[in-house]
Structure formats: C-alpha cells, structure tokens
Amino acid sequence: MTPSFLNAILLISQFELKRLFTTRKGLLYLITFSIVWYFILLYPIRFSADLFAQNKSSTLGSNFFEFIGFGALLNWQIPEFGVYWHIALVMFPLLCITITSDQSCSDRERGTLRFLSLRASRDSLFLGRFAGAMAIQTLLILVTALTTLILTIYRDTNLLLVALNSASAIALNLVLVLLPFTAMMAALSASVKSARQATVWAILIWSFLAGIISGLSYYLPALTVLKILIPGYQMADLSQLAEWQTLELAYIPILQSLVFLGIGRWIMSRQSL
Amino acid sequence: MNNSPVIRCHNLCHSYAGKAVLRQVNFELATGEPIGLVGPNGAGKTTLLSILCGFIYPTAGSVSLFGHKPGASALNGKVSALPQDAKLDPSFTIGDQLSFYARLQGLNRQQALREATRVLGAVALKDSIKERPDTLSHGMAKRVAIAQALIGKPELILLDEPTAGLDPVNTRNIREIIAELSPTTTFMISSHDLSELGRLCQQVLLLENCTMSSMQLNASEQDSPTRFITLQMEPCPTVELMSKLKNLAGVLLVSNPQKNEFIIEYNPTIEAKMDIKILTCLMDNNWHYRQFSQGKTLEEKLFFEE
C-alpha cells in the first residue's frame, strides 16, 4: 500500500535529515557550523554576558546599554540568553537563506525530481522538503540553545531551571522566526534553476519589498500594514521583548509562512519537471 | 481493476514557445505486448512520454492513465518510467536512493532494501549498491535508472531510449527483462533502435510531423496483396543481381535502398515459394548473402514506405 500524504511528507523530510548526517556536504556543513558556533559561544556570548552581569546592577551601566540600543538585553534574567537571543535573531535568518536555498532546484535541473514525482505527489515533495529544511534548522537551534544552557549552568548551577525556561522560549521563537524565511526559500527554489539564484533572488526580493513598502508607506501611512508581508518584519520588535513575551508576535511569521507556502505550492504544481 | 485503457490520449496538443510539437494526438492502449514509440528527432516522443509521466502538462487535450490524470496519487507504484537524461542525486549512495524510492512506494525499510538489491541485481549492478551515482559510467547510470523503473510491481513502464549507450550484452539483458515482465507489465518503449523494437513489439506508434499513426507489425504484410523479401548481400555486382532478380517470375520490383541491401516485392499468387527461387538464383551465380528475411525491415516500413 502506498504511504498517505502525511507519511510521504514524513519520509521525504526524514531523507532530508539524512542528507545532513550522511552526505559529505551535510557533514562539512555541520563541522563548519560547529566551529563557528563554538567561537560565538566562547567569545561574544560569554564575554558580553560577563559584561552585562557586571553592569546590570549599576544605573550607569544600564543607561549605557540603553544608550547603545541594547537595553532590551537587560530584560533577560540570564545575560547569556539575552546575548544569544540577539545574535540568533540575526544569524539564523542569514543561515536559513543559504542552507534552505536548494530545496528543489538542483533536483529539478538534474532530473531527480522526475524519479521522485513518479512516487510522491508534487505537494508532498514540496511540503516534505520544507519540513525537512525546518527539521534541520530546529536541530541546529536546539544544539545552540543547549550549549548556551550548558555555558550558563557551568557559571552557576542554580540557574538551571531559569535557563531551561529561557532556552525553551528562545528555541520556539527562533523556529517561528525561521518559518517564513524557509517558506520563501521553498517558493524561490521551486521557481529558479540553482541554489545561488534562489539566494540572490531572496536578497533582492527582501530588499525591494522592504524598500518599496517603506517608501510607499511614507506617503500613504495606511500602507504600513503591508510591512507584514516582509519576512522578519517583526524582528525589530521581537528583539525588544524577553522570555515568553516573545510569543506575542508569533502570528506574524505563521501568517507569512502560510502565504509563502501557498505561493510555492502554486509554483510547484505548475512547474515542468 | 477497472476496464479503463492503460493510456488514453484525446486531442493531445503540446507546443514549446508557440512551436507545435504534438498536434491532435489521439490513441488508446490496452494492456498487453510492449508498444514501440518511434519518430525522427524532435518529433515529440520525449514530450509525449513526459506528459504521460506528469512531468509536463499538455497545452490542450486530455490524457489519462488507468483512468487517472498523470501524476495522480492513485498511479503511485502503478506507473513507472525511465525519463530521458534524469540522474540520481550524487550526494547519496545508489542503494540509499533506490530504497527511499521503494519506501515512497509503500515498502517498509527491510523490504525496500531487498527491493533495491533485487532491481540492481536485475541490471547486473548489485555490487554498486554502496556507490555514488557520480562514480558510474554513462551506461551504468542508465542501467541504474532502468533499475529504479523496476521497483515494485508497476503495471505500466514508460521507457525513453532504454538501450541508448548500453553495450550489446546489457542491451540484450534489458530486452530479456522486458520480455520476462511483459505478461504482467505493459511497456511503452521509445527508441531509435528499430531492430530492437522489431524484436520486442507487435505494435509501433509513429510520431511524425506532430501527429501519430499506429502500425501492427505482423498484420500489415498478411493483409497486403504483395509481399517483400529483404536481402543483405556480401559484396556483389549490384546491377547484375537486380537484373537477375527482376527476371524471376512473380517479382514486381527490386530496389536497392542501401549498399548491398535489396528489397524484392513480389506477387505470392504467381510464385508462393519466392524465397526458394531467390536462393537458387544466388547459388547459381555463386553470390553469397549475409541476411535473408521475409518482409521489409521496420525502418523501411516506418520511414520509407511509399
């Protein structure tokens, strides 16, 4: 009996996870990511957290952080997580645009999608690849949250429960933040010929979308509402929130993802393989 | 199983950038013997197969396989294909990918691995199960692509140039696989190798000038008032041979389409044993033949028939 729609999505996403752990390209990516993350953890996060911890109690220190625009970091109970949150909000979307850019384009150019489409619907292929890309990123997010947690309890074991709470809030939020970026890359990957093209288009579309909507809304303030279409639109507001308050803006990435997935599915269903 | 034909095309049209490739193509195929699909380069054979597989959509008209639209979930595992120039993902081993395909067709992990081993064994590539596709030669990659088409128990297999680039031993192996599976699986084979199609198929579809015609290979000669013999000779005096053959009673026409190849058209009511007459003529003149066959070659029938 052939697998159901959901089972096909599950099988395809599992195969994408396998890509990360069993292929040369995937392993090389994992090693590079681990090294980069090790240095981020060891220097920016640990040193900035120390700095925050030292100045948090003094008014002068707080005013200084407010002045340079990082006052929101002080809202976090554990400084390591405040810094981690801010770094992750920039790092993961950028990583997302590169690592999820090849969800279907190279397979389509090579003809591999032809083999797959004889056995799975285009919808399950599109959504399975998207789910796979999200699973990989979730895994990376969990690793970074866990290592930050270890760094925190290494400093003070009494912070375990608070750190666990912060780590969970951040991990969940980061997954939500990455949803629309990944969906946008899925849609682009379904329409262009290479991962590089998808990345370039993502940057162009994002910049033009942000530029045009900002420009238009300057003259017609009612159009400000269109900013909701820009992936990551909520991130500036998000960085001002802390802990579970960050979920207040969760509806934005969810809505954006649904729109991008709808567009991507439409492209995929009409695309020649 | 319902009584829907395996393939039904109705007024199928397809064009690329305004240039028509298929125009009002209509045909129906029932289950049975392998069917050949021939036509000159650019005639639309690959386009037709791509439409049947659901890789591209027709510009107009309708197409159904077992009563379903190409690409429908109901055809998963039922229809399989060897697409032209499609390659496996170079990141994974061949075994990983074929097992994954088998899993998408509903097999569990162990069954999928067994199936991948079985189909690779069928194309004599069992030892390549742990290799990556980019380490294979063109011919080996083609055999792996054929192997993926054999996964499970498909009822219809569409093969686009299955033996192009294969060595003679593997070409014969693929022919044997097709002959072995033919009782349960319907094959549609697109090929330029007409001798191969002549061996495998009873029916051939000819795509030419954007339209399609069908030919039953056995029936056509039986119904004809005249019959043909094709003669391939060792080097011989062409003019003299043609003259001698023309003088045989019952011979209507002798043509020389290629060097040392002769097609003799004759009336069987005048001379039923024309083969014996021709062989006697050759022996009397001490001319040696290379091949002697009843009827015209498929190439002559399809492309040079007046």
> Can you list the strand order of the major beta sheet of chain B?
5-6-7-3-8-9
Task: Describe the oligomeric state of these chains in a short phrase.
Answer: heterodimer
How would you sum up the global shape of chain A?
A: globular
Number of strands of chain A: 0
Structural class of chain B, by secondary structure, is alpha/beta
Greatest interface (CB-CB under 8 A), with counts per chain:
A-B, 31 and 31 residues
Low-confidence stretches of chain B: none
Radius of gyration of chain B: 23 Å
Tell me, rounded to a whole number, the average pLDDT of chain B. Answer: 88
Q: How would you characterize this protein structure?
A:
The complex is a heterodimer of chains A (273) and B (306). With 273 residues, chain A is mostly helical. The longest helix of chain A has 34 residues. Chain A has one domain. Helices cover 76% and strands 0% of the residues of chain A. In chain A, 39% of the residues are buried. Chain B has 10 helices and 13 strands. In chain B, helix 2 packs across helix 3 and helix 3 crosses helix 4. The longest helix of chain B has 14 residues. The mean pLDDT of chain B is 88.
Features:
A: 273 residues; mainly alpha; globular; B: Rossmann fold; Alpha-Beta Plaits; six-stranded mixed sheet; 10 helices; 13 strands
Give the structure's gist in a few sentences.
By secondary structure, chain A is mainly alpha-helical.
Give the topology, please.
The complex is a heterodimer of chains A (273) and B (306).
Chain A: H1 5-22, H2 24-55, H3 59-67, H4 79-99, H5 105-110, H6 112-117, H7 122-155, H8 160-191, H9 195-219, H10 235-238, H11 251-270
Helix pairs in contact in A: 1-2, 1-7, 2-4, 2-7, 4-7, 4-8, 7-8, 7-11, 8-9, 8-11
Chain B: E1 7-16, E2 19-29, E3 35-38, H1 45-53, E4 60-65, E5 79-82, H2 94-104, H3 109-122, H4 138-149, E6 156-160, H5 168-181, E7 186-190, H6 194-200, E8 203-208, E9 211-216, H7 219-222, E10 227-233, H8 238-246, E11 251-258, E12 261-266, H9 274-284, E13 289-294, H10 298-303
Parallel strand pairs in B: 3-7, 3-8, 5-6, 6-7
Antiparallel strand pairs in B: 1-2, 1-4, 8-9, 10-12, 10-13, 11-12
Helix pairs in contact in B: 2-3, 3-4
